[in-house]
């Protein structure tokens, strides 16, 4: 049969198949083929003094891996936390947020940022915690009633306090949520301007040592489910125009995670040099043997878990409204 007949037939088949998917209520599902190409050879990556992006920046293997594919990396930063990296990506001064929390990422998307998820990780153990100075008299969740807790709005800190109060049957109106970003929350706790702080690593671990603080609620120990994950995001248009770059970066950052998992002491030593926190904190992290497990944006099992998490957050008003997460994943 001539090719001139075969090709239109295939096109009609694909069009009919995709129409059938949409009719079945799965219009957001990705087609089984992927686009190719890129319109730039430069990848602008944001970074802060912690996390997988910082390891990648200092270790150097990610840059070499991408350079071998003709891709130049520019590091934009440092940033104190995830939210401003997403602002940089939205504003066009960077191409990738630095691998932070999915909760503020969803909040940014709901606020209108044209972002899509490109790669997910689960980071274990889950060390986010609510802490208070030992001198505060706060040692359990019930002690938070009538007290102030510093949290990042629509982020991991806020969600953990909401979950802790719910588990202990305490109405959230009985606790004063003080919305502060980490650089402001740490000195507020130290000065006694807030009674407790809900924070992730390494900030929470540093605060335990420097402010003589203790755990009130720990995610890994006290919460039997996971709501927040690590993720990388870019602009939707960037992903559509540079699918080859997205795939190359995904492979490179997953390789970095695999290296960190296999070289725990070296990875923690690099992290230690970045923030120069107490050696006791570094040794604690080494003992935890922290690891990253990657999940692609096409992993249906993970996306189901992520949707459950997003629904939990919107039902409790940590997120302002419901969101369908599969509408905001890159086609890779």
UniProtKB/TrEMBL annotation:
This is Sulfonate transport system substrate-binding protein. InterPro entries: Solute-binding_3/MltF_N, SsuA/THI5, TAT_signal. Residues 1-29 form the signal peptide. It comes from Ancylobacter tetraedralis. SMART domains: PBPb. It comes from the Bacteria. Belongs to the bacterial solute-binding protein SsuA/TauA family. PROSITE patterns: TAT (PS51318). Residues 44-263 form the Solute-binding protein family 3/N-terminal domain. Keywords: Signal. Coiled coil: none annotated.
């Amino acid at each position: 049969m001539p090719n001139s007949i075969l090709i239109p037939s295939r096109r009609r088949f694909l069009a009919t198949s995709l129409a059938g998917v949409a009719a079945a209520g799965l219009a957001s599902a990705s087609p089984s083929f992927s686009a190719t190409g890129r319109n730039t050879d430069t990848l602008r990556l944001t970074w802060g003094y912690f996390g997988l992006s910082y390891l990648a920046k200092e270790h150097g293997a990610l840059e070499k891996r991408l350079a071998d594919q003709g891709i130049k990396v520019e590091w934009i930063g440092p940033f104190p936390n995830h939210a401003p990296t997403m602002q940089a990506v939205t504003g066009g001064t960077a191409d990738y947020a630095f691998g932070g929390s999915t909760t503020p990422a969803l909040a940014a998307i709901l606020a209108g940022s044209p972002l899509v998820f490109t790669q997910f990780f689960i980071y274990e153990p889950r060390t986010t915690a609510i802490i208070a100075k030992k001198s505060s008299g706060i040692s359990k969740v019930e002690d938070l009633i009538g007290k102030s807790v510093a949290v990042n709005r629509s982020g991991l800190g806020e969600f953990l306090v909401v979950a802790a109060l719910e588990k202990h049957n305490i109405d959230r109106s009985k606790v004063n949520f003080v919305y502060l970003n980490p650089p402001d929350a740490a000195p507020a706790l130290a000065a006694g301007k807030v009674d407790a702080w809900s924070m992730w690593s390494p900030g929470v671990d540093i605060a335990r040592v420097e402010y003589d603080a203790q755990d009130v609620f720990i995610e890994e120990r006290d919460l039997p489910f996971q709501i927040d994950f690590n993720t990388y995001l870019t602009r939707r248009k960037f992903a559509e125009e540079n699918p080859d770059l997205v795939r190359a970066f995904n492979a490179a950052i997953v390789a970095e995670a695999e290296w960190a998992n296999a070289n725990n002491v070296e990875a923690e030593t690099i992290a230690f040099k970045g923030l120069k926190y107490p050696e006791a904190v570094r040794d604690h992290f080494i003992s935890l043997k922290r690891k990253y497990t990657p999940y692609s944006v096409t992993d249906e099992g993970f996306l189901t878990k992520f949707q459950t998490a997003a629904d939990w957050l919107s039902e409790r008003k940590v997120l302002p409204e419901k969101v369908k997460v599969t509408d905001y994943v890159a086609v890779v």
